[in-house]
Amino acid sequence: MTASLPPCARLPLHFDARAMLDALSTLPPTAWEPHFNQGYYQGDWSGVALRTPVDARLSLAPGDGEARDTDYLDDFWRAQLARFRTALRSVRLLRLGPGGSIREHCDHDLGQPDADLRLHVPIVTDVQVDFLLDGERVPMQPGECWFLDLSRPHRVENHGGADRIHLVLDARPSAWLHDQIAAGSVDTPARQPSRGSLALERFGEHLGRHPALEAELAGLDDPQAFTLAVLAHAEALGLRFTAADLDAAMARRRRTWRASELA
Fold this sequence. Notes:
This protein is an alpha+beta fold and about 260 residues long. Helices cover about 30% and strands about 25% of the residues.
């Protein structure tokens, strides 16, 4: 990823989310297919490809070739894409169902030199959806357009009762797109602590005041037993976080340690 780009930025582009939602209603149920990365999610994570690389092994999968339009790219969606004055290699509608989650991962291909830049336009979302980038919540709202550096650790959890649907675009780097990202960075809302991270912080403070409990947990060699014990102690204190929150926090701590060792 180019060093000059921020972790995320809200571009000065805005879309009519209601019109997009109306367009979604015309898609047949069979248009939605499960995401190919089945080991990375729970629940319904599915999508509709509007444009896909010709060399992609599946319509929702990435590729390096020229883009081809699918039958679902109608006049409405063409008009939306025309607002992006840069080449678009992949365009997908991605849906995460109620209660669904995408575990933390990095899209390493997006961190390569001259890689595509990932853009998200939320169509349906609310405060019950946590899109976490580097462990912090990105406050995306319907109709906004965001650049996200997803070569960084990220995960998504839909705690609400409705589908979360985004228009997701892989755009080729260009002067226009870099200018849009730079312009949007000026007033991009700050990322926010996640609910789980706040509860974890309080649990860490509790451990600092109770060294015997800290030693007890540190003595658990089995990862599953450790996780279950931490969650049980936290629940007894009225602190709510998930195993995914704990795993992500521990992974960030390991990355910080490795970075300090290499410094």
